[in-house]
Design goal:
The protein is of the alpha/beta class. The protein has 20 helices and 33 strands. The structure holds adenosine-5'-diphosphate (ADP) and zinc ion (ZN) (2 copies). One zinc ion binds next to loops.
Length: about 750
């Protein structure tokens, strides 16, 4: 009897074997319902095998094969196998967590019958050349249907009046409708066209092959700029890569990286491919989706991110799976989308830490994207104004190909002037310097916008007693409780615990409690006092809890209905505010001397991003940084816009200190209520690691940066190796030893290529 091996959402590093009854057809990638313990569970068939080690009397039959429209592709299953192995995460949980929630349920996901349209015999006989030139939309529809049948949504993408014009064409007898549930890519034998792997380095549809089926169509391409020389070089390099290659597109803000993406997509589409664009921020996806829609109006574009409802997510996922969506735009989870015609992957803002998932399968979507491009033999483009040092080093060493955009694309647009304000040598008003206040005043009179960037929400990060020095610590965490003055609350940003602001010091009874330091709320109130008539908008997670609010805020900013913006890093990313000419940076200093070796890299990237908001249009921008270290090399590099010099210095430091990208790391974390159990576990894990005698450095067990959170004690153990391969070999040997350690009361996780320390 045939045996199948099934991935199930259980925390065990194995597949589970089941028999298949006669007449039940199963192929790899199909979803099945199987008995597991006393439950019935949904799983994915990973492979069919001839024999099993499970005793014949113990092996159970599959309960049901779910009649989905299409099984998961062999390519996706391979990708997930790789992720499970690389990130040391159970295969079943890896596979199921990569799927939209609806695919984890036991309901079949057949696509609903949809009405499709195709040319009738009469329509096919029409000579488009002699068809009236004035009936633009009808011509477009006919041309499109000549290539392939389409549904209404696809035709509507051609024009807003496509629906009405379609009716005309139907009444003329040139177009006919038919209902179909058929996956358009499904071959008559039921296999999808991508289940056969392309020959190495060759991909169906891409790169363009002589005499192939690749000469698809010319899509409408709105507002295409004549590319600058550097942009053209970048586009050519990628389109001529002829298979896998990883490109680092290093372009300053406003240099036209997005323009390069659009041109690349246009090329890909012409050859029948699909493109995947990964972006860091869910907030940016609607904006970007609209932007790409306006540039490529007849292309089916879809998005995938966690803000979608389950139904929407499944729908969009299937659009990608069936090859209907040609451009998929999404946050990190979209790297696991089915893309049968995938021909290009772009990772925008590749340095952004939100590409790394911080729980469950702790994957880096950027790194998975690179693996996927390699697996498939297509190019991948990593874009950034401030590449991660990992990627930058790879480009320096020649593993990636460097593409540079060194000037701003718009004639006349220059980079902002960056100036430091020494906070110890100037008058300060509750954290804001007189110099900065004056510059803001100037902008208000000129009807220009200012942005104050501070990476702390709330009013003040801590409340202090002037009598005894008491600080508002969280009783559940090692951190401090943040003062939220408007709500009269002290709130812990680590565990969510909150209390009313006390009237007197809980330790000594002194009534003189003062806020120390500044957050967005305090900056807002200082500004309101100084500029009573100014329109001030605070943008942080507290003020934008509701998704709609942020959209409204963006509109206000664009309509220049705001004079001063106060915000956290939410404001730094990717937004284009034409009237903004001044950026003030408050309090960046803590990152300069942080225990996290990546803190300066992150700060540099953040400041370049936030500085890039100033002076995008015709008005020059200015950036004022308030600091106690105006001569710090980081600020020097910012002033001279010298990413290269800065990166070289950082890399030299990292190499000396033996940090990534010159070593490869894995972090074992544990947390629990009992300190001794946490340390016992990690020490045992360490002993096991050392006993393996691999070529790796096993560091000491140390408390986490936040040693206590929500009453759990937290500690960690770092492993370092000189190569990825050495680290992976070690981890494979270490894993069974870890699995054997008693850890019932602990929360443990292994993090490969960790970003958080
Ligand atoms: P980035 O993504 O690097 O920040 P964008 O692609 O958004 O930059 O381009 C910045 C601005 O320059 C946009 O307004 C864009 O329309 C314009 N732009 C880009 N490329 C060109 C070009 N070749 N010619 C003229 N304008 C361009
Ligand atoms: Zn006190
Ligand atoms: Zn807390």
């Amino acid at each position: 009897m045939p045996i199948i091996r099934v991935a199930l959402d259980v925390p065990l590093p194995t597949l589970f074997d089941y028999t298949v009854a006669d007449g039940m057809e199963t192929v790899a990638g199909q979803r099945v319902v199987v008995p597991f313990g006393r439950r019935q569970m949904v799983g994915v068939v990973m492979e069919r095998v001839a024999a099993t080690e499970v005793a014949p009397e113990r092996i159970k039959p599959v309960t049901q094969v779910l009649p989905d429209s299409a099984p998961l592709s062999a390519e996706l299953l391979d990708l997930l196998r790789f992720c499970s192995d690389y990130y040391r995460y159970p295969i079943g949980q890896t596979v199921l967590s990569a799927l939209p929630a609806r695919l984890r349920s036991d309901k079949p996901v057949t696509s609903k019958p949809i009405l499709n349209y195709r040319l009738s015999a009469g329509g096919a006989a029409l000579d488009l050349e002699s068809f009236s030139k004035r009936k633009v939309v009808q011509r477009r529809i006919l041309a499109r249907l000549a290539e392939q049948p389409c549904n209404l949504a696809q035709l509507k993408a051609l024009s807003a009046t496509a629906g009405a014009q379609l009716k005309v064409l139907i009444s003329e007898g040139w177009v006919e409708s038919f209902a179909s549930t058929q996956n358009p890519l499904l071959n008559p034998d039921g296999t999808t066209s991508h289940s056969t792997k392309p020959a190495s380095g060759q991909v169906a549809g891409y790169p363009p092959q002589a005499g192939g089926e690749t000469n698809e169509k010319c899509h409408i391409f709105n507002g295409a700029h004549t590319l600058t020389g550097e942009q053209q070089l970048a586009v050519d390099a990628v389109t001529q890569s002829g298979g896998y290659a990883c490109f680092l597109l290093h372009g300053i803000t406003g240099s036209g990286k997005t323009e390069v993406y659009v041109h690349l997509m246009h090329q890909i589409l012409r050859h029948g491919g699909q493109a995947l664009l990964l972006v860091p921020e869910i907030n940016l996806t609607p904006q970007l989706e609209n932007y790409f829609r306006s540039r490529l109006p007849d292309v089916n574009i879809t998005s995938l991110h966690s803000g979608l409802s389950e139904g929407e997510r499944l729908h969009n996922w299937q659009q990608a799976q069936f090859g209907v969506a040609r451009i998929v735009l999404g946050t990190r989870l979209s790297v696991f989308a089915e893309l049968p015609k995938l021909a290009l992957i772009i990772v925008d803002e590749e340095h952004d830490s939100s590409f790394k998932q911080q729980d469950g399968l702790r994957y880096s979507a950027r790194d998975v994207a690179i693996f996927r491009a390699n697996q498939r033999g297509v190019p991948v483009v990593l874009g950034s104004a401030t590449p991660s040092l990992e990627s930058y080093q790879n480009a320096q060493s020649g593993r990636y190909r460097m593409l540079r955009l060194t000037g701003r694309a718009l004639a006349g647009a220059s980079l902002p002037a960056v100036r430091c304000v020494h906070i110890n040598q100037t008058a300060m008003h509750q954290g804001i310097s007189e110099v900065l206040l004056r510059e803001i005043g100037l902008r208000i009179t000129r009807n220009e916008q200012s942005l104050l960037f501070i990476n702390r929400r709330g009013y003040a990060p801590v409340l202090m007693c002037t009598g005894c020095g008491w600080l508002s610590g969280c009783k559940h965490c090692a951190g401090k409780m943040v003062l939220h003055l408007k709500e009269q609350r002290l709130r812990c940003h680590h565990c969510g615990f909150q209390i009313r602001v006390p009237h007197a010091c809980p330790d000594c009874g002194n009534a003189d409690l003062v806020p120390v330091g500044s957050g967005t709320q305090r900056v807002e109130s200082v500004l309101q006092e100084r500029f009573p008539d100014a329109r001030i908008l605070r943008v942080d997670r507290d003020s934008t809890r509701n998704k709609r609010v942020w959209q409204t805020m963006r509109k206000q900013i664009h309509a220049n209905e705001v004079d001063i913006l106060v915000g956290t890093q939410m404001l730094a990313k990717g937004h284009d505010f034409p009237a903004l000419t001044l950026v003030g940076v408050l309090n960046p200093d803590s990152a300069l001397y942080s225990s996290d070796f990546r803190a300066p890299e992150k700060l540099f990237a953040q400041l370049v991003q936030v500085a890039g908001r100033a002076g995008r249009a015709d008005k020059p921008g200015e950036v004022l940084i308030q600091t106690a270290f105006p001569d710090h090399p980081l600020f020097r590099a910012l002033q001279t816009h010298d990413f290269e010099g800065w990166a070289a210095a950082q890399l030299a430091e990292r190499q000396m200190a033996g940090f990534p990208p010159f070593v490869y790391q894995a972090m074992l974390r544990a947390e629990g209520k009992q300190e001794n159990e946490v340390y016992q576990y990690l020490n045992d894990a360490r002993t096991a690691a050392v006993s393996l005698q691999h070529e790796v450095d096993v560091l000491g067990v140390v408390p986490a940066a936040l040693p206590r959170r929500a009453n759990h004690l937290r500690a960690q153990l770092l492993i370092q190796a000189a190569s990825r391969r050495a680290l992976q070999q070690f981890l494979r040997a270490w894993q069974p030893k870890l699995d054997a350690l008693p850890a019932a009361k602990l929360r443990c996780s292994l993090d490969i290529d960790p970003l958080e320390f």
